[in-house]
Amino acid sequence: DQQVKQNSPSLSVQEGRISILNCDYTNSMFDYFLWYKKYPAEGPTFLISISSIKDKNEDGRFTVFLNKSAKHLSLHIVPSQPGDSAVYFCAASGNFGNEKLTFGTGTRLTIIP
Amino acid sequence: DAGITQSPRHKVTETGTPVTLRCHQTENHRYMYWYRQDPGHGLRLIHYSYGVKDTDKGEVSDGYSVSRSKTEDFLLTLESATSSQTSVYFCAVSSGGPEFFGPGTRLTVL
Known about the structure:
The structure holds two protein chains of two kinds. By secondary structure, chain A is mainly β. Chain A has strands at residues 4-5, 10-14, 19-25, 32-38, 45-51, 56-59, 62-67, 72-77, 86-93, 102-103, 107-112. In chain A, the strands form two sheets. In chain A, strands 2, 4, 5, 9, 10 and 11 form a six-stranded mixed β-sheet that branches. A five-stranded antiparallel β-sheet of chain A has the order 1-3-8-7-6, with no helix packed on it. By secondary structure, chain B is mainly beta. The termini of chain B are far apart. The A-B interface holds A 6, 32, 34, 36, 41-46, 49, 89, 91, 97-98, 100-101, 103-106 and B 4, 33, 40-45, 48, 58, 90, 92, 96-104.
């Protein structure tokens, strides 16, 4: 039973445009959500998080939106740059991040120059 | 960089042999985790630790054991490696909130 789902295995976006990565979850006990970025042959790197008391969190070019009623979150990258090409993992946790994470299967983002 | 090292970084072994992977951290994080990453599965939790000598199973714990005798070290052991355990293994640490990952160990079981 996949509690965190990333239904798009891959996404290609033109450089300078907006990249939107999506994630759905099924467990209503999740209240803390994170995005990680992973380059080949490296460990995942934490990007940005959001707790369920907010619906938006922004950090530079990265913004995460949370729609609790739809159990959906998205990561927006604006503007997209070639260095953003990577695999992005969505993750969720309960107890405001004090429980272990459940990861999605990842979306491979390719930025086209 | 959360001060996490993994050793070895690459290993090739034969079916039936024991294998131990080591994770070492320098920042005194309370929680430590072992994940495996496989195509189509994302990151799956094998075992985790919430303190010295306190460990628990994750979703794919069969065939693996762990030990944490010191805050800074978390060992993952495959008692008798199988080809299905060929994977990339990541260690992670946290003190609550985000987990921070090591560089990974690529294990091939022939």
